[in-house]
Prior knowledge:
This is Beta-glucosidase. Belongs to the glycosyl hydrolase 1 family. One of its GO terms (cellular component) is cytosol. Keywords: Carbohydrate metabolism, Cellulose degradation, Glycosidase, Hydrolase, Polysaccharide degradation. The protein has one domain: Glycosidases (TIM Barrel). 38% of the residues lie in helices and 14% in strands. It is built from 14 helices and 13 strands. The protein has an 8-stranded parallel barrel, surrounded by 5 helices. The chain is globular, with a radius of gyration of 20 Å. The C terminus is likely disordered.
Amino acid sequence: xxxxxxxxxxxxxxxAVREDGRGPSxxxxxxxxxxRIRDGHTADVACxxxxxxxxxxxxxxxxxxxxxxxxxAWPRIQPTGRDPVNxxxxxxxxxxxxxxxxxxxxxxxxxxxxxxxxxxxxxGGWLNRDTAARFADYAARVAERLADRVGIWITLxxxxxxxxxxxxxxxxxxxxxxxxxxLPVAHHQLLGHGLAVPALRANGAAKVMITNxxxxxxxxSDSPEDRAAAEAYDILHNRxxxxxxxxxxxxxxxxxxxxxxxxxxxxxxxxxxLDGLGINYYTPTRVSGPGSDGLPFRLEEITGYPRxxxxxxxxxxxxxxxLESLAQRxxxxxxxxxxxxxxxxxxxxxxRERIDYLAGHIAAMRRAxxxxxxxxxxxxxxxxxxxxxxxxxxxxxxxxxxxxGARTPKASYHWMRDLIRGGAGNGPEREGGxxx
Length: 436
């Protein structure tokens, strides 16, 4: 069965940050620091999903989605990142999963979507190897309660983005500015993933995977310098996170200081067999080289394409290019692929631009050759807290009035409903992969 889904994350929608025993996360701390978030917004309330989740499950069901990708807030389960477990936190997700199953919606649970317990950050966060062990313990606790009903488990969401924005550039929580010295964050996240996989399976998890944010990398010209810059960016953005998981090895990182934190046996742990690979795609990346600040590349603007309200170029065929490049690079080592995020920011409820965006990307996904795509998840079900942008970027199929919490389905929501039901006019057909 091909999975048609919508995706969200805990910190972006739940609110209720101080209720029912939830501990503080790095994002609670970061968002309350002056100047960190546009216009001083916080996610203290967000979409109030913690209280309004039955309404959101009903929206999923009405649209016909057969899967829902949500994330679990680690600080709700273990307020300090360690036992004891908070029963109220587990109870919330227990009720959510039950409600999804009652509607024949496959629960797809992400264990880490960037909201690390602040207590673990105080001990070094993902720069500390022990955080990987803490993550595996947390995964086991959640699976003990939910694995009998969750269809797919995703260990980490976009470890590249969390490393770069959170630890290298400081524009996301925890706000560190380590540049290339942030590379151990990559390894410790991947080690946490590798340790969590057997912990999940030991507690009955049916399918386990990781979600990586990937991008086609375009050199700004055919010059040797720009081609070298593209190769360097591809290594740090794509291969650093896919190679260890799929091939059991890191690409050559000697030019970037290497990874002295890798110990014997780590790569065997990271390369646990997976049931799928989640891919989040938004846009290609164009680079020239060399860059400044010791980096071997410089990011360049992509011109000649429409832009979203966020200013991101809309390049649907980049998704086909990305999928085919994964198939070519990894061959038989590439498991089934799920598009776990794809979406865009536009204002308004009559969001025709979003419909065009989704139609183009779904069609591009279907054109990809040599790759087994088994699911497509729109980012996002709801307008939500868009990290450093606060509430200024609206990615949702459903409009949220952040003053009242009221939900209003947009034109794109109705379009997706018609697509899933097989009546999207000239849009792509319902079937989207090799498994129907």
